[in-house]
Amino acid sequence: MALSSRRRYRPVDYWPGFVDALSTLLLVIIFLLTVFMVAQFLLGREVTGKDTALQRLNAQIAELTELLALERSGARTAKDDLSSMQASLAAIEAERDRLKADAASGADRAKTEGGRANELSGALDKERELSAQARSQVDLLNQQISALRRQIAALEDALNASESRDRESQAKIADLGSRLNVALAQRVQELNRYRSDFFGRLRQILADRPGVTIVGDRFVFQSELLFDTGQAELSDAAKPELDKLATALLELTKDIPPDINWVMRVDGHTDVRPTRGAFPSNWALSSARAIAVVQYLVSKGVPPQRLVAAGFGEFQPLDTAENEDAYRKNRRIELKLTER
């Protein structure tokens, strides 16, 4: 009579499916945000490195500019000294010419002024020597100024090249993010298609099987179909149903391309009542039941890297009421095809 009652009244709770769909969408959005943040982090690190190089180049330019200013100041000082020396030279030559003119007026006066003329000639030669040294210094300063200008031009070229590379890197990062988003969307669509095909096969295999329902994107087995009360060892009645599931999983493994990283997640759930016996908590019981299902599927040839066992205890109920019907709904094993 209890079985007939369950068949007559089997309410369908769509809310968990809606929540799971939103959770899946949220996970996809979080993943996209994570990719975007990683791209932003890489871009930020790239830009930081470029900013550091730019600051270093600016510092070098400032240092060279200051050195150029000092060199220019020295050149101006040397030119001023040269102008002063040239003026002195002109005055000495004028004095020498005057003395030579005076020397022509008389021999005595010429003898008297002869020593003076010699002194002036020596001073003139010294002034010429100093003027030549000043010209050499000016030429050297001009050469240094030209070298500094060439260095500044080279630094400006390097800075422009660095800015160009930075723009290219930003464009590449943006293109990479766009292609990654497209590839991710394609993978999600492909996985959704295979998930739909897989659940379609399970519907055919387990059609009208009592204790098996579909909630959103998950297949749900009531625990009583697979385990005895308070136990984590599969019952004999559970194995034929799991054999059908293993066959469907093996076919799915052949169909899905190897580049789609998928897994079948087996989730164990219990009701809120405390456990009794070998398990210290509902968490331990739900985990042990999920592991038992996974181990059985592996024994039937399902690749272990395509299976995940998880225990949720009583913390993910389908029905929060405190009655036998709610307890029965919450004691379950859920199967969900998802990405790893």
From TrEMBL:
Going by the entry's taxonomy, the superkingdom of the source organism is recorded as Bacteria
On whether Membrane is a keyword of this UniProt record, the answer is yes
Please list every transmembrane segment annotated in the UniProt record, as residue ranges.
21-43
Q: Mind naming one GO cellular-component term on file for this protein?
A: membrane
Which intervals of the chain form a coiled coil?
none
InterPro entries named in the record: Bact_OuterMem_StrucFunc, OmpA-like, OmpA-like_sf
| CDD domains assigned | OmpA_C-like
> What are the OmpA-like domain coordinates in residue numbering?
215-340
* Keyword terms of this UniProt record: Membrane, Transmembrane, Transmembrane helix
Region feature (Disordered): 103-122
Which Pfam families does the annotation name? OmpA
Task: Kindly give the PANTHER family that the UniProt entry links to this protein.
Answer: LIPOPROTEIN YIAD-RELATED (PTHR30329:SF21), STATOR ELEMENT OF FLAGELLAR MOTOR COMPLEX (PTHR30329)
Q: What is this protein called?
A: Peptidoglycan -binding protein
